[in-house]
Every structure is written in structure tokens, then in C-alpha cells.
Amino acid sequence: MARAIADVPLPHVAAIYRRVSSLKQSAEDKYALDTQLDAAQAWCAAQGWATSEQHIYTDVWTGEDLWQRPGLMRLLEGVDAGRVGLVLAHAVDRLTREQTGGHLAIIAERIERAGARLECVTEPLDATPQGVMMRNFRAFAAGSVSAAIAPTRASYSPPPSHSMAIGLTPRTLTARAICLKSATLRTR
Predict the structure, then answer these.
(1) CA angle, residues 75, 61, 102, in degrees to nearest 5
(2) What phi and psi values does residue 158 have, to the nearest 5 degrees?
(3) Which of 8, 77, 168, 176 is the most buried (most CB within 10 A)?
(4) What is the pLDDT at residue 129?
């Protein structure tokens, strides 16, 4: 997309966005905040983008929300003000876990309207129609993962991991338990 104010050069500075859903995930997961930051700074150095502490944005928040994330909102305000030329996240699922891809489209549109680029450390992004389709597919996949783990978040005890390997999800396990209970009651 063309920038609203044509021919205004943006600084060759990257805004780094990092997000985790919980403080526990921040310390233990492969997406720990420090891991995301180290990878983003290495990517920027390799690609020739400057970074600074003032342009590192962090949220400990669900990726299913959009407007409620304070770090993301500050980042987008900085993009709108022309303070950065690149927004870099570790992966699409760090930007959003909303399944329809609508949130990612809103974020990308706002960044691109300001004349900046959106990139991910672990996934190539491009603005071609095929690239936008892949970007939206990644958002859908991230949302699907989020939806799949949602039952385990709400006072639900997850099934043993070997159950998942044979295709039994929490939902199918619950349905099977109800059917088995019903069948047992009928045979008595």
C-alpha cells in the first residue's frame, strides 16, 4: 500500500514486537521473551536494521485480543508517527492467534499504510497476493492451535499425551466418555 504522505523517508530502524500469553510461558517456552528478542536483534543485525531499547515492545497477553494489548498499541502508534521503517515479530502467532486472519490483516494494513514493512524472524512474509494468502493462512493456523488448547485452559484436565498421538482430542475424549457412560447405563 502507498503511504498517506508520499516520499517521506522512514528511518532504517526496526520495532521489535514480542509476546507471550503468560509469565510461565515467558520463562519456559521456546518463545520466551528473551529468546524472541535475541533472535530479532540477530535478524536485524544480519539485515542491516538498527534497533533500540525504545523500539522494543512487549506484551504478556493473549494473542486472541487485538486492541487490549498495550505493547502492540504503542508499537502501532510509533509506526503511524513514522518512527520506524520495519516491524519485526518472531512469528505470525506472536502477532495474533485470532483464527480468521482479521487481526493480522488489520495490523499489516496499518503498518503498510504508514509505509513500513512487516517481517517475521522465523517465517518469510511478502506483500504479493500469494504472500498475503500465506500470511493469513499462518494466522488461521495459529488461531486453530489456540482454539485447540482452549479447553485445557479452563479447569479442564488434559488427556495423556499418547491420546493426542492417536487422534483423540479433548473434545472427542469427552464425547466418547459420554457415549460409554450412556451405553453402560443402558446395559444395566
Answers:
(1) 65
(2) -65, 150
(3) 168
(4) 73
CA 4 → CA 32, 40, 81, 82, distances in Å?
A: 36, 28, 12, 11
Tens-digit pLDDT profile for residues 64-114: 777 889 999 999 999 999 999 999 999 988 988 776 668 888 999 999 999
Q: Which residue type sits at 111?
A: I
Contact 157, 151 (CB under 8 A): no
DSSP 11: P
- Supply the DSSP string of 41-96, one letter for each residue: HHHHHHHT-B--GGGEEEEES-TT-STT-HHHHHHHHHHHTT--SEEEES-HHHH-
Q: What residues contact residue 178 under an 8 Å CB cut-off, 6+ apart?
A: none
Answer yes or no: pTM beyond 0.70: no
pLDDT at 55: 97
Q: Does domain 14-155 have CATH number 3.40.50.1390?
A: yes
Phi, psi of 92 (to 5 degrees): -60, -40
- Indicate if the pLDDT at residue 3 is higher than 50: no
The answer, yes or no, to whether residue 160 has pLDDT greater than 90, is no
